[in-house]
Write a structure and sequence with these properties.
Number of strands: 4
CATH superfamily of the largest domain: Glutaredoxin
Largest sheet: 4 strands, mixed
Strand order of the largest sheet: 2-1-3-4
Oligomer: single chain
Radius of gyration: 18 Å
Distance between the termini: 44 Å
Shape: elongated
Number of helices: 8
Order of helices and strands: HHHHHEHHEEEH
Structural class: alpha+beta
CATH class of the largest domain: Alpha Beta
CATH topology of the largest domain: Glutaredoxin
CATH architecture of the largest domain: 3-Layer(aba) Sandwich
Helix content: 40-55%
Length: 174
């Protein structure tokens, strides 16, 4: 590899590094540990940049190509930072037939970004998703973990506003 473990992970905070090390150690010896390590690490950082993938490969003693292959294969993982409000649009067959492409286009227009991107202020990102399993309720849109069904383009702005208020109220109750 040529990189030292310390040099690979220089872009994260000391606390994040401690958390990542703890994650890796907690799965030590566990068969199939790569996916859970990646999943838990993404929870800490919000995404899996190449230097973190390399760090995980070094720590797990596996080829970086294996780590990168898993990260790029599964849509659950992201190599780019996501916004505070991660908006997903289902483009599975049923939702696509029910005009989810129009939902995606309206979101791109409203937010000024394309699917897969994040706004410059880090507030919003758009993801194109494949089947959320709510085919009879399409088109389906998600914001973070919340699912919105039978979405119409003329309601998108209102849904985003309502979700922001819901998140703010949820935080106040914590």
């Amino acid at each position: 590899m040529g990189s030292t473990v310390a040099g690979v992970i220089s872009e994260v905070t000391v606390e994040q590094r401690r958390q990542i090390d703890h994650i890796i150690e907690s799965f030590d010896g566990t068969p199939g540990r790569l996916i859970p390590v990646l999943h838990e690490t993404q929870k800490v950082l919000g995404f899996l940049p190449p230097e973190i993938q390399e760090y995980i490969a070094i720590r797990l003693n596996i080829p970086i190509t294996d780590v990168h292959g898993v990260v790029t294969f599964y849509s659950l993982f992201s190599e780019k930072p996501k916004g505070k409000f991660c908006i997903g649009v289902c483009k599975g067959t049923a939702c696509y037939v029910k005009k989810s492409q129009k939902i995606l286009e309206k979101l791109e227009e409203l937010l000024g970004i394309r699917g897969g991107d994040t706004t410059d202020d880090g507030k919003y990102s758009i993801e194109v998703l494949r089947c959320l399993g709510s085919c009879g309720l399409g088109p389906v849109m998600t914001i973070n973990e919340k699912v919105y069904t039978r979405v119409k383009t003329d309601r998108i702005k209102e849904i985003i506003r309502e979700h922001e208020e819901w998140e703010a109220n949820k935080d106040e109750c914590s």
